[in-house]
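can u do me a favor
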């Protein structure tokens, strides 16, 4: 039984969600370029999400973590390496996302670097 004065029901969607975004990154050799990423994630622990994120925007929280982490992972490589090793970088990005997002009860299923664009 729920006490309507002090308790409420919070619905949390546990389906896989897709997040697509582009991010300006700087490579190890100081080249600035845009990286397009698609990220598939889902909630695996509703209690952690409810306790640590509350009714906040889960997608926005995931995106903020992903933006900073992508800059870090891409910044460890030179531009040529980023272009040649997109799958390896995506895998490393996914592993690090899972380590960071486990605290919030979110699992990153897969990430993919869709492309890179050099500024003109």
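np, heres the sequence
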């Amino acid at each position: 039984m729920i006490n309507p004065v002090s308790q409420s029901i919070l619905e949390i969607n546990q389906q896989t969600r897709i997040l697509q975004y582009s991010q300006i990154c700087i490579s190890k050799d100081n080249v600035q370029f845009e990286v397009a990423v698609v990220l598939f994630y889902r909630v695996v622990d509703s209690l952690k999400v409810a306790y640590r994120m509350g009714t906040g925007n889960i997608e926005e929280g995931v995106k903020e973590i992903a933006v900073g982490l992508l800059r870090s992972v891409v910044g460890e490589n030179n531009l040529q390496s980023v272009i040649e090793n997109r799958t390896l970088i995506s895998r490393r990005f996914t592993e690090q996302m899972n380590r960071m997002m486990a605290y919030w009860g979110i699992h990153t299923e897969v990430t993919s670097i869709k492309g890179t664009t050099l500024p003109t």
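The helical segments are 46-52, 58-75, 79-84, 86-101. hope that helps!!
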